[in-house]
Design brief:
7-stranded mixed sheet; 21 strands; 666 residues; alpha/beta
Length: 666
């Protein structure tokens, strides 16, 4: 029995934040050392940060990453530690994992498969390393092994699958297994998406089983660079069994997950496998041999437990609230902001954003305690004296109800009730005079009175836009950021006023559809996240029909009357944008899913969707940054590209009309 204590560190890094990144790395190494861990896997590109974008191509960034690596190396004495950084070789940049052994560089394994889909653009900066190629690279006059290499450290063999490598069909683990690897390290920067953790667990488990190895997976956590959220979730598996799992959505800057693994047991398991056939190759170049003495380990009982919230029936609701709350905190503190301001209307979207900011505080204090939570905001001196959770929320969140003559007491009371329940500071602005001043200004200029029968859209939009300057002024006075309240369903059809309700520096819910958001608010009213409970004041919001409340009350305006039922809108969006179906194909899918509606009604709504989608790409281009939570995102900067100018599906919609007309005749 040869026992090794291995670990995976989860880090909350920031692109180009060299000192902060180094501090987190050294803290994780120190924690691992204190717990007797000999082998520690850190996340992908942890030294520079994963989201450096085009600055990866800056020679200064590459040089600084190398300098920071040199500063970290002495702290790895007596340990084996993987460290990620960008590395230039022969005028090509590579995403590499440096294996530091006992304070020295053993070599650099380069990433084979680059993530170039969805929110990832790795091929823009890095080159994929060809399988089977090994070279020597010279840095500061010294040569180091680089490429498709593995390591023999004191008789234990280590190999790498770097993030996307493990997602590929021809993953490197196959070859590593044939070369007798004992432990595969996977340094990753795998962004959060709903349900994605199950996929990660599968490839870690299957890798450990099929390759007959111990598998150690490390990931980032938090809002690293602005849009992507990382959920952490370190994993350690052996022989097809998960033996250790780290927390997800932690508010801590770093955490270490560890396990005892039996090297002899894994080797024996592989020896018993009839399908396993080792490959005999010349190892002079590809295997780096380094002496290393492992400290003795005593056998110990290991238990594996998931967090209670991950085993419940509302996993998507829990993932959503924890992901966005964590992302908001990191966005705030890394921007050195003093909180958020929300234009709270009494409706679903603004209530959701307000609750998410409050829950950001509650989650953080529940995990870290008040003192450590406030230490994350040490630049905000005035908040340090806050004594309890509600006082902290009040200083970090202001909610403003901005009324016009078309606003009603129902929405005012709902807005005030939610703000008071969550502990936000509440203000009421009457913007009627501002709206009327703009209307009169333009009326005099054009020589006629504006009226609802002629100028409906313009009169709605000026109300939304008139609310923007005052609330931005309040945000500036507080040193806070205005949070936009638009959701993904509105973004799809442009049901939002640019420079009005889209105003803000961050769009926390722009990545989520309205139907789910309404369901999430009902869950938050009645159940809420485990450990924090419900927010019952949301009942006043949830019983209302969604409305922009911009037309006169006699118009009885509702969002769904202006557009279509939200459930249908979201289904059309998924079919048209996510699944790339033509209008006719979308119609056929909707007929199966929504048989309660006539063909003529579906035709009207589907035409409306495609027209509005095409017409409003310019709005989506101008939205404030949003958080990526699933593969249905409409953000043109990270996920869904569409031309600002297009043919608006004219021919495709004509085919759809002809099809419906002919079908109706028969």
């Amino acid at each position: 029995m040869q026992l090794l204590h291995v670990g995976a560190a989860v880090l909350n890094q920031t692109p180009l934040a060299w000192n902060a990144n180094r501090t987190n790395i050294l803290a994780a190494i120190g924690e691992a050392r204190g717990r007797g861990i000999s082998v520690l896997c850190l996340p992908e590109l942890c030294i520079s940060g994963y989201g450096c974008e085009d600055t990866f191509l800056s020679p200064g960034v590459q040089r600084m990453a190398w300098r920071v690596l040199q500063e970290i190396l002495p702290e790895t004495t007596g340990m084996i530690v993987s460290l990620g950084l960008p590395l230039l070789h022969q005028n090509a940049l590579y995403d590499v994992a440096c294996l530091a052994v006992d304070g020295r560089i053993a070599g650099f394994t380069a990433k084979r498969y680059l993530a170039g889909d969805g929110i990832h653009y790795e091929p823009r900066w890095f080159k994929p390393w060809p399988a089977g190629r090994r070279v020597l690279t010279t840095i500061d006059g010294q040569e180091y092994p680089l490429g498709d290499i593995y390591y023999d450290c004191g008789g234990v063999r280590f190999g790498f699958e770097i993030c996307e490598d493990a997602w590929a069909a021809k993953r490197p683990g196959v070859e590593l297994s044939q070369r007798g690897i004992d432990i595969i390290l996977n340094p990753s920067a795998s962004h959060f998406a709903f349900g994605k953790i199950a996929i990660r667990e599968r490839f870690v488990l299957e890798g450990s089983r099929a390759f007959g190895v111990h598998y150690v997976y490390a990931n980032l956590v938090g809002n690293e660079a602005g849009r992507a959220i990382y959920d952490g979730g370190a994993l350690i598996a052996s022989a097809g069994k998960m033996i250790s799992m780290g927390p997800r959505f932690s508010f801590a800057d770093w955490s270490v997950t560890s396990a005892l693994v039996d090297i002899d047991a894994a080797r024996l398991s592989r020896a018993r496998t009839g399908s396993f056939t080792p490959e005999f190759v010349e190892e002079a170049d590809e295997c780096i041999r380094i002496p290393f003495a492992y400290p003795p380990c005593e056998p110990a009982t290991q238990t594996l437990e998931r967090a209670a919230w991950e085993t419940g029936a509302h996993i998507k609701e829990e993932e959503f609230v924890r992901a966005i709350s964590l992302a908001l905190l990191d966005y705030m503190r890394k921007s050195r902001l003093r909180g958020f301001v929300v234009s709270i209307s009494g409706g679903a979207d603004s209530a959701a954003v307000s609750c998410l900011v409050a829950l950001m505080v509650r989650f953080g204090i529940a995990e870290l305690g008040r003192k450590v939570f406030l230490a994350k905001l040490q630049y905000f001196n005035e908040i340090q004296s806050a004594q309890d959770e509600r006082e902290i929320i009040g200083r970090l969140l202001a909610c403003v109800y901005q009324s016009t003559q078309h606003s009603g007491k129902i929405t005012l009371n709902a807005a005030r009730g939610v703000a008071e329940a969550i502990g936000a500071e509440f203000f009421q602005f009457d913007v009627d005079r501002v709206v009327n001043d703009y209307i009169n200004l333009v009326s005099r200029a054009i020589g006629r009175e504006l009226s609802w029968d002629k100028d409906d859209v313009a009169l709605q939009n000026i109300q939304a836009r008139a609310r923007s300057p005052g609330i931005w002024l309040l945000a500036n006075l507080r040193g806070a950021l205005l949070a936009s309240t638009s959701n993904r369903s509105e973004a799809a059809v442009g049901y939002a006023t640019m420079d009005g309700d889209t105003s803000g520096g961050i769009s926390p819910i722009a990545g989520i559809d309205k139907a789910f958001l309404r369901r999430w608010l009902r869950w938050l009213e009645t159940t809420g996240p485990q450990g924090l409970g419900s927010i019952q004041a949301l009942h006043a919001v949830n019983v209302q029909e969604p409305t922009a409340e911009l037309r006169p009350p006699s118009a009885a305006q509702t969002d769904e009357a202006d557009l279509m039922p939200y459930e249908l809108l979201d289904a059309i969006e998924r079919a048209a944008i996510r699944d790339k179906h033509s209008p006719l194909e979308v119609f056929k899918v909707m007929q199966m899913q929504f048989a309660q509606y006539s063909a003529e009604q579906l035709l009207t709504w589907i035409e409306r969707f495609f027209r509005l989608w095409s017409r409003n790409q310019w709005k989506r281009e101008r939205y404030a940054p949003s958080f990526h939570v699933d593969d249905e995102n409409l953000d043109p900067k990270t996920w869904c590209r569409f031309p600002i100018l297009s043919g608006s599906y004219d021919r495709e919609l004509a085919e759809l009309r002809d099809f419906v007309l002919k079908s109706h005749k028969h």
